[in-house]
Amino acid sequence: MAHKRELRVLCFGASITAGFHSWGLRHHPYATRLRHRLQAGLPSHSIEVEVDGLSGDRVIGGEYLSRLTRHFDATAGKDERLDWLIFQGGGNDLVWGQEPAAILEVLKTLWQISLQQGTKVMALTVTDTNDQRPQTRESYTKLNELIKTYQHENFFVADLFGKIQYATTSSEMRKAIWDDGLHFKPAGYDMIGDAIADRLLEVIETGTSS
Q: What's the burial of 197, exposed, middle or buried (CB within 10 Å: 0-12/13-18/19+)?
């Protein structure tokens, strides 16, 4: 039997990455669906997907840096390099009133930690919420545009904000996928996993570098 090539993926972020729902009593990470899709799409690979989602964490003044650094320190000098970092951050910072431009500067530092280690980055835009006030929409849109327009070799974006819009989703679908207006139900997290898988498989299959 041919040896399967390993594909190591780290899903990293805050509560959305953790799959937070039912007021935190339960979790359904999108990584579950993502792994299933990757294994189906890449049958010649052995897929390993790790989840590190810390609810409430922020990129500015939070634990993002220390958490991410620990992952790369743990694999330093070993033949266990991460192939992909699936990264989401900035949503909680917006809630705390941080400016999108300031958030982006920290995001770039965090992304570079991964890129410098030879790990490709799939950055996720901040997911939409039921807060449709103009000021909120402006800050979310601005940060997500900054994320989408950032360019670097081996850096890619999966636009969750564009894929799953609260305002244009039917009331029936909202009830099916959103939990509390910010977090999702398991069906919503599965949608996120599918969106990421679609983008990741596209990049892997085309062999693009940016």
A: buried
d(CA 21, CA 197) in angstroms, rounded, equals 21
Strand partners, 178: 184
Distances, alpha carbon 190 to alpha carbons 32, 33, 185, in Å? 8, 6, 9
Q: Are 209 and 157 in contact (CB under 8 A)?
A: no
Which residue in this structure is represented by tokens 């949503």? 91
Contact 4, 46 (CB under 8 A): yes
CB 91 within 8 A of CB 14: yes
* Residue with token string 């081996």: 154
Q: What is the pLDDT of residues 28-66, one digit of tens each?
A: 999 999 999 999 999 999 999 999 999 999 999 999 999
From residue 195, give the alpha-carbon distance in Å to each of 3, 118, 182, 201.
Answer: 29, 24, 18, 10
Sign of the alpha-carbon dihedral angle for 13, 50, 114, 156? negative
Query: Per DSSP, what are the bridge partners of residue 112?
Result: none
pTM of the model: 0.95
